[in-house]
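In response to a reviewer's request, we include the raw inputs and outputs for one of the modeled complexes. The two entities were modeled together in a single run.
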Amino acid sequence: MSFFNRLRDHPYLLEVTYQVTEQVVNALQPLWRRMGYDRAEALFRTPEKIGKGAVFNCKMCGQCTLHYTGMTCPMSCPKNLRNGPCGGVRLGGYCEVDATMKCVWVEVFERSQKMKIYGDDIYQIQPPLNQQNMDRSAFMNIAFMKSAEIPEAWKTETGLSHEQK
Amino acid sequence: MNKNRTNGRFESALRSGKFVVAAEISPPDSANPQDVLKAANILGPYADALNVTDGSGANCHISSVATCTILSNAGYEVIFQMSCRDRNRIAMQGELLGASALGLYNVLCITGDDVTTGDHPQAKRVFDMDSIQLIQTARIMRDDGIFLSGRKLSAKPTFFLGGADNPFVEPFEFRPYRLAKKIEAGAEFFQSQYCFDVGRLKSHMQKVCDLGLHEKSFILIGVGPLRSEKTAEFMRTKVPGVYIPDEIVERMRKTPSEKKREEGKKICAEIIQQIKEIKGVAGIHMMAYKQEESGAEILEMVGLTEKKKIE
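The model returned the following structure tokens for the whole complex.
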């Protein structure tokens, strides 16, 4: 596990990998469309579960926010907080619920500061999770626009403007 | 901030620029409305608004919305606290509409202490939305008159929306940005966790002012008396998010037991005096759980006891 732990502390490497993967998945859009969501999703689900599970301790929410959250999975937070830490963080930056675990958001913030491509995305507001995407491939949810299925009323342009940062 | 809405008393007090006092009360474990009124008796008259907690510390009590309604009917200005721990988005939007229909105007949206800290650790934690998403949802309902689903409301609710702030725990550098995110979502006022570390508060407020957030929202700082070094120790180890520096615990320890109560009040009064001088602070938020008398005496010590309740 220590290899993956060390990898997590190199968020720049991870964000580059993420960017490349996303571009490849997007470039192959016609292929996924021909396969259809069900088959393409079934193909991706297990590799994603294993791969992202090892690197990010992925919980398969099906709606990756990794590049918004310091290439750190916010679903490891017992409260599943996707917009920032709660107010219960313990002395030394440990989790309110599990005192042996570093607060996920302490790690998110530290790592986001080392990111060159998506570092500022941490300041954007994340919409409520679509629970229907649970246990499905996040990449296929992106490819088939399922991640874009945010609540109708949600304004996507929210987030801090640049002068505020 | 939307200026065309009917202002509540709390909002008017904040907008008037005076130093505001909010006080927290704990809803009792009772179905008797008299017990609710009793809980507000001591601090109620001095507070510009009474915060009613929503199952604080994940312990079961009479509901926040019911407590708020009883108090509001008795003439108190209340702040309805709503946590994300126990309800999903369907229940939360329904309760927001209900609260507004009952005349509740101030809503403090918080994440909520985890179920494991309370008396029902076996309960399921919900957290379908987080506090920022809850603030934005309430704002969408108020300003756009629709549910998250896009379905239209036949009458829009009115809210003065607040969020929580905790400058005293990590990640310190991110905390001001978290306020900025909440303001972006729709927060108009903030109430902080207990302040026992004025130095930390000062550096937090400095950054908040640098970002101009104090001009976009009203920030109230949490304060409260310590009864003894034992309560201090309990609070900093068992109550989520409370930081008490060793110097303060030591100061309580050195005080002879018959004077501990006085010393606790003195520490709190000193902190309030220092908070008053910090740029960007709009007021205090008095949390004096089971020592409401001490809370009222502290307000007297710092000269914040103008009567506010409408009879």
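As requested, we also summarize the result in words. The interface with chain B takes residues 78-93, 96-97, 103, 105-106, 109-110, 122-123, 125-129, 131, 151-155, 158-160, 164-165 of chain A (CB under 8 Å). Chain A has six helices and no strands.
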